[in-house]
Design brief:
Number of helices: 10
Order of helices and strands: EHEHEHEEHEHEHEHEEHEHEEH
Radius of gyration: 20 Å
Structural class: alpha/beta
Number of strands: 13
Distance between the termini: 15 Å
Shape: globular
Helix content: 25-40%
């Protein structure tokens, strides 16, 4: 019997990309609300409770409402793409590669929270170094990142692409989150295994999809004896045996002149780099991904497949 999948919020940026990825699948049945019935809450509730997996592509409050609508139905499982449950102890965090046991946690969970795009890159870089003790307690982590403008949803897409928009953005690149209270910080802190919140500075570039996340480190402030090579080796060991997160070999990254933010557009994988000069005191950890791929819709499909494999 085909698994029934309902995308609650299928007309948003993330929902549309998930639907595109699932369009040719013959092993699932996609449930959908007709366009004219999008505000029919009774129909929405019925579809949520008819699904084997409901994927929530909604604002936080609407995701919480969907959770309440399905709370009494043990037959439906939720995969939430909002920030509502990403640090909730009863929800599995949907980054299967971040830990050897995480895929099984996702597979067996009734409720799974899909990671944010920036945190996927940041946690992917930070967690292995915290797990091994290379990154010590109290280290002042900084996360600097640039995303394609689709990360801001339909509103920002219109601002960037429509010159007639009353709030048109003409800038080729801009910083935001200037109060340093971004909604992704708790997620990075918890799942990055940090004991101190990172300083996070996000930005948006004039490209639709793609993302670069950077975590610069001072080697002399890490666990004794660390080098560019040992940091790289820790990442290689952590991600061994899977094919979603690639740690780029040092012999490749040492010859690179640049990192292209759009290299992985349309792909649901992530590349990690360790840049620096052997023998020097600084390294720059870099994650490269598609903000709508491994950073959103691609990850959601990966998590859905794990949930259906239970």
């Amino acid at each position: 019997m085909k698994a029934k999948i309902f995308i609650d919020g299928e007309h948003g940026t993330t929902g549309l990309q998930i639907r595109t990825r699932l369009a040719d699948r013959r092993d699932i049945e996609l449930l959908s609300i007709p366009e004219a019935e999008r505000r029919n809450e009774k129909m929405r509730e019925d579809l949520l409770n008819s699904a084997d997996v409901a994927i929530l592509c909604l604002p936080d409050d609407a995701s919480k409402q969907a959770y309440e609508m399905t709370a009494a139905n043990n037959n439906v499982r939720l995969l939430d793409a909002s920030t509502a449950f990403r640090v909730h102890p009863d929800w599995a965090y949907g980054f299967a590669e971040m830990d050897r046991s995480q895929a099984e946690k996702i597979r067996s969970a009734r409720h799974v929270s899909n990671p944010g795009c920036y945190p996927t890159g940041a946690i992917g870089l930070i967690r292995p170094l915290r797990a091994t003790g290379i990154l010590p307690d109290g280290y002042p982590v900084s996360v600097n990142a640039v995303s394609g403008y689709t990360g801001g949803g339909k509103g920002m897409i219109a601002q960037m692409e429509d010159e007639g928009h009353p709030e048109h953005i003409s800038s080729p690149n801009f910083l935001y989150g200037l109060t340093l209270k971004h909604k992704h910080v708790p997620e990075m802190t918890k799942h990055g295994l940090l004991d101190r919140a990172p300083l996070f500075s996000p930005s948006v570039g004039r490209f639709a999809q793609g993302m670069i996340v950077q975590v610069p480190l001072f080697l002399e402030d890490l666990k004794d004896g660390q080098s560019l090579e040992t940091v790289h080796a820790a990442l290689v060991e952590h991600y061994a045996g899977q094919d979603i997160v690639e740690v780029v070999p040092l012999e490749v990254s040492s010859k690179m002149a640049r990192v292209d933010a759009v290299e992985l557009v349309g792909k649901d994988t992530m590349k990690l780099f360790v840049f620096g000069t052997p023998g020097q005191s600084h390294v720059n950890l870099v994650a490269l991904l598609d903000n709508l791929g491994k950073g959103a819709s691609g990850a959601a499909v990966q998590n859905m497949d794990l949930m259906l494999s239970a």
